[in-house]
Amino acid sequence: MDIAQAKRCENIAEYILYLWQVEDLLRALQFSPEAVYSQLVAPRTELTEEQKPAFLMWYLDIAGLLRQEGKEEKGHLEHTLHLIQDLHDLHLQLLKLPVGEHYRRTFAKLEPELPRLRGVLGNPGMNDTELCFRALYATMLYRIQGQGGKTAVTDTLEVVSPVIAELAAMYGKAERGELDLFKDR
Length: 185
Description:
By secondary structure, this protein is mostly helical. It contains 9 helices and no strands. The protein has helices spanning about 1-10, 10-30, 35-40, 50-70, 80-95, 100-110, 115-120, 130-145, 155-175.
């Protein structure tokens, strides 16, 4: 809960990836309140006993949303998919507007890799931004599972990461009112 809130304020991309990880953790724990508490809440030594129920409820709320959306086995919450769509909308704007000049150069390095990534990760109708998030998440899972070697997904990380990092930074600036997309730089 506190980690998610901090990530949401600081970096939208990290927030999305964190929530995807929480979704998978909840599935691995079979949405059991006891398992969620013992694995995700109780080990948090910085929490007081009074804070722990609120943290458990946060996890259980996410579990409830996954069930409500029919995503008990796979898939991601509509909330994160909407955020990715917001990021994709920004991506499309940055490809056209003067303020996106640097972003376009960064994205140009990734663009030739997109067909290969799409082939590996499937779903030809997926937008480029979601494709990048899926590549980042797959890489994160490979590392967690101890499979950190080169794969068709992980070898594109050096061009995917800068694009998502810059897109997330521009999103944060626009959200905070620090960036006017329609003003020349």
